[in-house]
Design goal:
226 residues; alpha/beta; Rossmann fold; seven-stranded parallel sheet; 9 helices; globular
Amino acid sequence: MTLLFVTGTSTDVGKTIVTAALAATATAAGRSVAVCKPAQTGVAPGEPGDLATIAQLSGVARTVELARYPEPLAPDTAARRCGAPLLTFDETLSAITELTADVVLVEGAGGLLVRIGEFTLLDLAVKLAAPVVVVTAPGLGTLNHTELTTGALAAAGVECAGLVIGSWPETPDLAMETNRTDLPRVTGVDLVGMIPAGAGTRSPNGFRADAASWFDADWADRYLLV
C-alpha cells in the first residue's frame, strides 16, 4: 500500500483538486484508491464536502470523513465553538491504517500545522512515516509560505514528496513565472505538478482524462503506480 498525505501552504491553494487529480491518476492506472479527510469544516450536515468533490471528479468510491463542523474555521476551533468533541490522534490514526487500497490519500485542513483535533497533519505523518505532497500557490508570497512548510517537514524528519502548484493560470504573470523556477531552488524540493486553473469545473470524464498529464510522469510512477 502507498500512503500519501496532501497538505497546503495555506487554505484555498487547491488541496482538494490536487487530491482528486492524484486519485484520478492512480485509478486510471488500475490502482485501487481510498481517500480520507479527517475533518471537514464550513459544511452543514448532509451537504457535499471536499470528499464529494474528489469522488465526483476522480471516480473514487472509498472515502472517509471522521468529523464535520459547520463553521469555516480551523477544525479544533470549529469543534469547540459547536460543542463537539475534538478528534483524537488515536481514532484518526486507526481510521487511516484500517483503509485497504493500493493508494491511500489523506487530505489535511488548511496548512501543515493547523490543528485537525488534538493533533496536526504533521503529527500523523511523523507517526506513519508518510511522505507529504505540498500544494502551493503560484503568486507573490508563495516562496516564503512554501519554504516554511517544507522546512517544518524537514525538521520533523518527514519526506516531502514534492510540490504541486494548485492552480496555474492560462496567462501567468511575471511573479508566477519566476516562482515556478524559484520554488525548487529555495526549498530543495522538486516541483512535480501544476494543476490548470479551473480544472475542478471540468466534466468528470475530462478531468480524469487529463489528470495524469498534470504531474511529472516519473514522479507519478514512483508515488502512485508502484
